[in-house]
Amino acid sequence: GYGAGLRPAGGYTAVKVPVFSFAKLHQVDTSLGPEMKSTGEVLGVDESYAGALYKGFVAAGIRIPKSGTILATLADKDKAEAIPLLREFVRLGFKIVATSGTAAVLARAGVPAGQVYKIGEGGPHILELIADDRIDMIINTFTKGRHQERDGFKIRRAAVEQNIPCLTSLDTAWAILEVLRNGQGNGNLELVPLQEYARKKGYDDAVSV
């Protein structure tokens, strides 16, 4: 029923979110590479991008906190880009804690952030804070390698085991910020059948059940 050529933009957005089984795979890094495949996927559909994204996250089992403490451990190449991102999270009421290098960059930019110890530098250190349920979300971008002895690997594994969202891409962090800005994290999801989306745009003949 669609015919040839490009269809006009619809009145909704669809976001596909992959689902992984990292919690069941011990000692496996949660970072993705070309050799990794998802164990499933879900689809979030809404009239807004933020709404579709939030539905996709929820269906994939990703818990997005509306408030709390964000741990930021960033590679040097990502620190400048992360400044406006973390500033916006602070404006939404989040508290930021960061390792020494990231905390220093944020301080110079006027973004309030508490400093936390790296693993083995003192206490309580990052893993202890995660284990004590004092961290609600983690933004951790890659530095060098993905070996098990590196702090980043240990942080990501601890996040999986504590069911804490751990974002390894600033693009994803910006997307979650957009979700929270638009009030999508309040748990009130409007579930609409695909047929209703099609009917709204006059595509009744193109969708059948």
Structural description of this entry:
The protein is of the alpha/beta class. It is 33% helix and 15% strand. It contains seven helices and seven strands, in the order ββαβαβαβαβαβαα. It has a five-stranded parallel sheet, sandwiched between helices. A two-stranded antiparallel ribbon has the order 1-2. The longest helix is centred in the middle third of the chain and has 13 residues, at 79-91.
Quick rundown:
This protein is of the alpha/beta class. Helix content is 33%, strand content 15%. Helix 1 packs across helix 6 (170-181) and helix 2 packs parallel to helix 6.
Structural class: alpha/beta
Describe the main β-sheet briefly.
5 strands, parallel
The portion of residues assigned to helices is 25-40%
Q: What is the 3D shape?
A: elongated
Per DSSP, what share of the residues sits in E-state strands of 2 or more residues?
5-15%
Which residues sit in consecutive blocks of at least 5 with pLDDT less than 50?
A: 205-209
Q: What sequence of helices (H) and strands (E) makes up the elements? A: EEHEHEHEHEHEHH
In the sheet with the most strands, the strands line up as 5-4-3-6-7
Report mean pLDDT, rounded to a whole number: 79
The whole-angstrom Rg is: 20 Å
